[in-house]
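Researcher: Here's a chain I'd like modeled. Treat it as a single chain, no partners, no ligands.
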Amino acid sequence: MPDLTARYGGREGRAVRFALSRGMVVVRTRTRAPLSRALVSARSRRILDAFEPHARFPEHGVEVLRLRAATGARRLAIGQDEAREVLRGDPGVEFAGRALVSAGAARHPHAALAEPVVYTENLFVAFRLGISPARARALLKGHGLRLRRTLPWAGHACFVSAPRGTGLRVFDIASALLSRPEVALCHPELVRRMRFRRAFAPQWHLRAARVNGVRIDAHAEVTAAWRTSRGEGITIAVIDDGIDLDHEEFTRRGKIVAPRDVTQSDADPRPGRGEAHGTACAGIACAEGRSGASGVAPAARLMPVRLTSGIGSMDEATAFVWATDHGADVISCSWGPPDGQWWNPDDPTHEEEVPLPDYTRLAIDYAAARGRKGRGTVVCFAAGNGNEAVERDGYATHPHVIAVAACNDRSTRSVYSDHGAAIWCAFPSNDYASEALGHPAPRTPGIWTTDVTGNAGYNPGGALTQGDRAGHYTSGFGGTSSACPGVAGIAALVLARNPRLAALEVREVLRRSCDRIDETHGAYSPDGHSPFYGHGRVNARRAVALARGAPRA
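Model: Modeled as a single isolated chain. Structure tokens:
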């Protein structure tokens, strides 16, 4: 059995260990069609009675099946092996193997609920400076690897494929390459399900408002900032699932720039079925405010980048490079590793640590160093909705990232929002009641923003309970997914006021602008940092003033 360890950061970097799952099977069909349509033999169909669909990775043509709880105790010893052997023999199946889980999750008492990790037989390899292309090609050829593409933004690096059927030996290949003096970085492409940071009014997050007869004054002073900046000349890249380019709030001439679908490798990032998250996030960042909803930076341009490829895929690095190379000033990412259930302390996902793949780390470094002609692109990430330690999330804790937490309509913490030293700031979002946690019910349904036009989004239309009657807007968006593009919008307001600022200077302006909310329970340190709110709730009016060197209000 191969050593199922991936090393991020090189030979002396962080070692992340995995284990074979108990009760899960990974299947890839020859046509990449769903398993239900691809199976040929009756025996294959019968064997699946003991399993249920658990996860899909359509961009890789992969499905993960999990042993049904009702039959698990009886069939666990034979279920996986029998299923794999039968499925391998089906003419419609190209591959049937074991899923991985993190080593920590495998030891958890509720390991059956662990998130699957899928290996793709692809590897990232970065050679040391001075290694000749011929020598690099020879090393790859010696391991039977095929070059898929070079990655000049990551140095002397490339993305390669092992022969089909390599399976778990991809870990051995990565280890062997990393032991070579010519190789600086190498690890397999390991993919988890991407979780958009959603957790399910009038726009009370922009200014004081009356909602359901109650005055809400827990906003980020956004409309006050519009007197001097509305985001003119600034481009916000929203990396997310599909975005409705035809929505009435995005159709102004010049509003959309450099659209891209990095999962499908084309220029149409419109939503697929069931994709409404990206449209809502884009609206919070920069909706025009002409018809039904305003973004924080309504005059900013929108660069929609569709990414649905799963956490850990090479496509996520491609998304950052695309945004940087096509002029993004700010990048907003309302996604990350799977969250544990915020109300369930026994969920094993709370204990899973998900590091950044080296290619994604280098792509974010590239944005921070090369974006905006060397001033650096501002990168914002949603902190997460698991009511758990943000430090386990390698994405939100990257040193060049602004990690955004969620606060509520009472100017206190949203119950689900992740916490820890990496939190930089907070922005208003929705909330939930929790009697067990002593958390009161929210006074608003959530954040009002753009929805996929018609009945295809969160709001099916026809009534006012979930937004507008036509279904173009939703009133119940939330999570740190909603908070992140809010801060991205404020960064755009700051840069429109002073485009000479470097990304690190924008970060500092945001810090200095923050209002320290919830002084009683915020656990602020002597230097003014809270594990729940970072430096506090961002104040857009003050941030725009600070951008021009005005004295702090």
